[in-house]
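Structure (tokenized):
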């Protein structure tokens, strides 16, 4: 057991509420704490493909693990750090290079994070959301332009109900205004 696992079990055993619990309840809590700790540290898997020399056209995909790593794998950056360092998972993956019995065949592997639920996998690789989501950034930009008085310089321009853009636009304090009617219809602009 690692130091994290011992600390998790020790925290359960040191709980003052243990006087009111049965031995089975204490065992369940200790095992649950151990499983919770291991679910965050034993997240490394080896995904490999092997081919026998007798049947090179058939590829078999295998998964070895889960393996533990030195840190808690909860971010992509920590996973990339684990990939750079040596580990038991990497050693196991290298053993997939050929059949250990016959010394024939070939294999390859990659290390991957292991998850219990699909949502955990999606959350692990989800990019960080900026303060203002991209789909709403244009609103913040237009508000900043408007507060700075920049809306008069924006050439969205008045448009006739037919969709024709007015060529000549006069910048005013309330925004761009067409000096006259629509050149196509002669109607009012909006």
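Design, position by position:
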């Amino acid at each position: 057991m690692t130091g994290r696992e011992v600390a998790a079990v020790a925290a359960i055993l040191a709980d003052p509420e243990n006087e009111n619990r049965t031995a089975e309840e204490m065992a369940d809590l200790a095992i649950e704490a151990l499983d919770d700790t291991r679910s965050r540290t034993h997240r490394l898997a080896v995904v490999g493909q092997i081919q026998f020399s007798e049947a090179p056209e058939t590829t078999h995909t295998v998964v070895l693990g889960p393996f533990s790593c030195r840190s808690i794998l909860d971010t992509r950056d920590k996973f990339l750090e684990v990939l750079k360092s040596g580990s038991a998972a990497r050693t196991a993956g290298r053993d997939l290079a050929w059949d250990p019995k016959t010394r024939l065949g070939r294999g390859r592997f990659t290390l991957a994070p292991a998850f219990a639920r699909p949502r955990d996998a999606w959350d692990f690789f989800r990019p960080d959301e900026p303060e203002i989501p991209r789909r709403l950034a244009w609103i913040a930009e237009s508000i900043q332009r408007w507060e700075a008085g920049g809306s008069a310089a924006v050439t969205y321009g008045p448009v006739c109900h037919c969709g024709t853009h007015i060529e000549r636009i006069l910048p005013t304090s309330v925004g761009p205004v067409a000096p006259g009617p629509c050149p196509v219809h002669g109607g009012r602009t909006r």
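Reviewer-requested clarification: The chain is about 35% helix and 20% strand. The longest strand covers residues 55-67.
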